Amino acid sequence: MVFKLPVFSFYRHYLRQVRRLPHSYLRIKASDDFRALAATPTHKSQLRNSRIKRISKDLRRIGLAVTGRQDAFSYILDLAYGRRGKLKWELMEPLLTQANVPSLPEPIIHSRSSSRPPVYSAELSALLINTASRTNKSLELHQLKFPPTLSSRANPTSEEARLLGPLSKRLEFNTRWRYFTREWKKVYPPLEIAVKGNNGLLSTSVSDVLRAEGKIVGSQDQGLLDGIKEMVAQNDTTLLDGSVVVIKHCWEEFLSSY
Fold first, then answer.
1. Please, what sign has the CA dihedral across residues 42, 44, 46, 48?
2. Do 119 and 71 lie in a common domain?
C-alpha cells in the first residue's frame, strides 16, 4: 500500500500525481502535509499513522481524478479552490473577522463586552444571500438580523415575551453565534473580491479593493477565476501530461457558483 513507502518516496510519488493537475494549491498542500508528517515525533505513532492515512486517501482521489473519475475530480476541485479543508478557512477568515469593525453592536449582556453579537461583513452578507454561493438555499437579509433559530422572545415587544417573559440573554448570545457559524460554513469561499471602479467596470486589483474599503482574500488578484474560465472554454477532453480526463462538465458546474 502507498502509505508503507518511505516518507520521501511517498512525497515524490504524491508530487508526480499532483503535477498532472492544473492546481498550484495542491502542490502547496502536499508540501504542508508532508512537512507536518516529517515533524511528527516517532513516539506518536497513532498521530503519524493518522496523517499518513489521510495523505494516502487524498493521493488515491488524485489518482482517480487524473483517470477521469468525475466524482474524484469534483472533490479535487473543492480541495484545490478552498471549498473544503484548511484553505476554506484561510479564504473565509478575512470575511469573518470581528476586529476593526467601524461600529460594533452593543453587547447583549450589558455588563460583558465579550457578549456582542456576530457582525456580518458586507462581503459575507452578499455570499449568504446569493443562491450561487451557497451549498443550499440562500438566506434573506432579515435572517441575518434576527436568525430563524432565535426565539421571538428575544424581541421584548413581542407577544411571546409579554406572555412568557424575555429570553435569556445568554441563550440569545449563544443562538446568534451558533447560527452565524453554521451558516458561513455553508458558503463557497470567494476566489476574489470585485469592486466597481469610477469607470463602471469591475476590478479585482488589491489597490482598488482596498480603496473601496473591501476585504482582501488570500487568492486576490491572482487570476484564478480567469483561469477557470479558460478551462471551461477548452474542449470536452483535456490532455494532462498524457492522461485524458473528461473535466468540462466538472469545470462548468464549479464555475456556475461564481
1. negative
2. no
Residues 173 and 118 in one domain: yes
Residue owning grid cell 452565524: 180
Residues comprising the chain, all counted: 258
Q: What is the C-alpha to C-alpha distance for residues 182 and 229, in angstroms, rounded to an integer?
A: 30
Query: Are 17 and 66 spatial neighbours (Cβ–Cβ below 8 Å)?
Result: yes
Residue written as grid cell 464549479:
254
Residue 26 falls inside a structural domain: yes
How many domains does the chain contain in total? 2
Domain presence at residue 31: yes
CB 5 within 8 A of CB 14: no
The pLDDT tens digits for 76-129 are 888 877 788 888 888 888 888 876 677 788 999 988 989 999 999 888 998 899
Rounded Cα gap, residues 166 and 158, in angstroms: 9
pTM of structure: 0.73
